[in-house]
Structures are given as structure tokens and as C-alpha cells.
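Incident log, structure service

09:12 report received: a user says their structure output differs between two submissions of the same chain.
09:20 pulled the input from the user's history:
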Amino acid sequence: MPDAPRPPDRPVLGVSAAVWQDGKVLLVRRGRPPLRGLWSLPGGHVEAGETLAEAVRREILEETGITAEITGQIDIAEIIGKDAAARTDSHYVLIVFSGRVLAGTVTAGDDAAEAGFFAPGELVGLDMTRDTARILSRPARP
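09:34 re-ran on a clean worker, output below:
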């Protein structure tokens, strides 16, 4: 019988951003675990030697084809995954930024299955991650 997967030694640092254009927010549908199939703010891991701002701009571009200006930090989110025995099997800490579009056409890439802009009324009933729903429930940040 194979050994159970080893729990993470420490949280993984990541970034994401609420990028706005014309009153709509940029979202991606996750193509890989964790949270596969759910809509979320674009983002991902911070690479060694990257600043947080560099990482979030890179992740937005890789996942959506959009070049964004980062306008500030707006939140911190934690994603803690549990296995069937309720043991921690993943732990991510995300620094969440706001931003606006500078250039590009939305195209899903990297680990995003889909990407697009959504008006506030289109978010109702959208299957989003818990933190994305929480962050977007606040007043819009153009």
C-alpha cells in the first residue's frame, strides 16, 4: 500500500488580482486543482526573486493575455485544503491586489480553462471560490 501524501511543510505564497475594465472584473475558471472548475481572480505562485507586483502582473498575463497596471493591495486570502481524513494537504496564502487593464485581448492560458470580464450582475449564480465571492461582494473598485 503506498504511503499517504506528505502534508505541506509550510504555506505557499501566491498572488491574485481584481482587474477592472469598464465596470467589469476579470475572472478565470480554474483548469487545475486546487479549486478546478471554479471561477476566481487570476493569479498564482510567486517565483523566487520576483516581487509581488511582478508576480501578479506575470500571472495575469499568463492566465488571461491581459497586461495590467496594479493599483494597490486589497486583501489577503488563505486556501487550506483537506484530504478525506481531514488532514491538511495544501495551504496557500494569497496577497490580493486591484488593477486595471492596460492592453490585451482576453484569452485563457496557462492553467485557466476560461477567462472573461463579468459585470456585477453576471456574478450572481457564478460558481466562484469562496474568497473571490467575498472580495467581489464589496463595492467595485474601478
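09:41 both user submissions now match this output. Likely a transient worker issue. Closing.
09:42 reviewer note: The chain is about 15% helix and 45% strand. The helical segments are 52-64, 130-136.
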